[in-house]
Predict the 3D structure of the following.
Amino acid sequence: MRSPFLWLALALHVALATSYAWYTPAFEGPDENSHYDYAWHIANAQQLPLTMQLAGERGLPQTEGAVLAIHPPLYYAVVAAGMKALGCDDTVNGPRRNPEFDSGSAPSRHLHWLHEEQPNRLLFWLRMISVLLGAATILCVHRLGRICCPAVPRIGDLAALLTACLPMWSALHGLLHNDVLATTLSSATILMLAKLLLADRTTTKHGIALGMLLGLAFLTKLTTLFLGGLSALVAISLLRRKQTNITTVVAATITTLVVCGWMFARNYWLYHDPLALNAHDLSFLPLPPEARWYYFFGWDPWPETTPSFLPTVFTSLFGRFGWFHLPPHPALVTCGAVVAVIAGLGFVRALCDRGRKYVPHATWLLLSACFLVFLGTAYFNLSHNQPQARFLFPAIAPATVLLAAGLVRISASIPHRRLAVWLLPMTAIAVFFSTFRPAFDPTLAPAPVAHRSLVGHIAKDPANTSIEWTSQLGASHLEAPPTLTWSDPSAPAGTHYTLYAFDDNGRIWLATHEWTKGDLKISGEEFAIPTDIWNFLPRDVPLWIKLRRVPSVASDIPRNLATSERLRLIRK
């Protein structure tokens, strides 16, 4: 921690990732709205969601499901805790798609959604969880470099800087995404495996600690499963060298199963597959078998305008922003490729040195981690079109240590070589201001004044209750959707309303304006609940319903608008 370059790397990471978190419009990251939904479901419903298909098969309301319910829950539980801490666990989202998204040369073609003038800042504070996790990963990267290359501390310093200044790294850590926690836990686990390999002797405590890390990683994302194979290789090496005993291995295995085994059992019970891959394929249809190899290599007839795997996955490290629609500048990719080649040559040179002080200890571990992560990413892309660098980030720590080792070795005799380090932050800052910011200006895709991407304070006591119910629903169960009536004499002409339903615990079951993207317009003083809206509600659960005016001007804050008192409703 005494290295000024580590502090520089942390400062750059926090500054860059926070900038992306602040300036990225709401949900303008891959599936960010679906990641929010999963976390919100845990915070609001106090339980894990089902897949949308399973909820439908069981005849449950759609609010019991989430698109990404096939993912392990740990990251979402962390974000849900953030929502609860901020008092925003009843904040629903309802982004509206930008009709010009991915359309030719339209200025807003990179923006997936329409955006309001004054966005809700809840998303920014939740994204700061990603910023903090990224800082933890950089600490792991630096430490891995220091323990693997103790004679050349500059390798750990440079590895941390390479990570902090990678544009796609900063962009991902300015979003809600479970890859950030998967990367942190993968880096921490690889760091611990390296320490075990370099230790004189390992104990049962080491096994328990490793099992905790593995269990937490497996509870975060399936992209971390490579750690199981990597740990097995380390265990075999330690057993052969008599640096450990079978008790340590058993302790690690049992601890891993205790931490995450319940999730695999739940997946098997719900989806008849411990990894829930069959449920994943129902939610995200695989590539047609006849197109897989064309996509994988980018061969004809795969269209050049559609990203393919090998030609895209590495270039995306330099920044495919938004919903993977803004590619990096070719000059940036070329420079990155040149640096990688130079690093490779430097590493080969280090292998030929007599003392080999630039070659990291446990090089086989670092190379194996990189190989297994790439192999897993490639295997997944044989069936699904996802050529994204974020799948490679679980190997960011070993990869940057190896790159840094090669760069430090090849530049060892170059005077004033430290000045070149400043090219890294200069490039990262230039990418942010010249590529990202102009393309993701939210004013390029303005939303209607009634739209808000996030709306909260639904189940909380209203501030303005000038809307009065005239409906008399009573306490009996209702078999058919009722007609609601109310009085709002002070409402301006053209006022629209949103109808909310929530239970005694504050769980939201309905938000008409937000969940229909504004297509369902409630106006006047009477509303017959449509059957499809009625089906959102659970049966035999006492609910509260209330109306709220939707914004009529851009400056309106939903929680301050006129609201009705709660009205009891029970669906039979």
